[in-house]
Please model this.
Amino acid sequence: MVLLRYHTGMTEMLHKVRKGHTAQFGFVQWGEALKALGFTVNFGRTGRKIATMTIQAPQGSTITIESNPGYEVPRWIQREKIDLVVLASQYLGLPTPEAERELKKLASRDLNNTGTCPVCLGVFKRARDGGMVHHGFERPGDGEIHGDCFGVGYQPWELEPTGLKLFLELKLQPVVLQLQEDLEDLESGNVKSLFVPSARSFSLKEILRSHPSFDYELDRAIWNCRARLWSSAAHCVRVQERLVTWAPGELPEIKHAKK
Model:
């Protein structure tokens, strides 16, 4: 009977870990939960009172916490890039909350003749030729479609990666090259004028090198260009990693039928 009560309490604690509801956890709750998930935990005591908790992660990193475990433990876990939600879900034999939400969304949809867009990874219907139907667009009320995901018309990700490969070559990489050229121009010192947002409208206004705020605006333009270049280059790397690891998969209607 004692073992049953302990197991029930442990299950409840790990459900809280899985959902991120650990703000009220003290030394004891964190200690028991982490032990169940493969961590080594030792307590330091002053008399009968727990004064410190030393935690060793499965990969070897350690920390000693002296106060406020409800804040310090999650902060250390995040710093060590350990996903407690995944670990707790595996222990309980459940999908992660995020995967659970996705499954609920899929369960409420008609998944017949659907596929995963190779570009945005959304699940949409397929046209007669098997390509992805229109998505990622807006209808502002003028009777026309404005904008579209690049993946429209391409075969779903489960069948081939062509849509994403062309998205990388035709959209992402040209943007990176253009930003590199823009940054070189801005940093060259040969810029004679800049176009900056107007304070009184949504248009751009041109300011010349002789303008008092030119140096400030130039520094801001360089910083913005560097940030956009870093973001675009990182996006390219993520897409390249997806392409390298691509393998044929099951279409949503088949995959979901097994769950």
User: Anything to note?
Assistant: The mean pLDDT is 85. The chain has eight helices and seven strands. The first helix runs from residue 2 to 19.
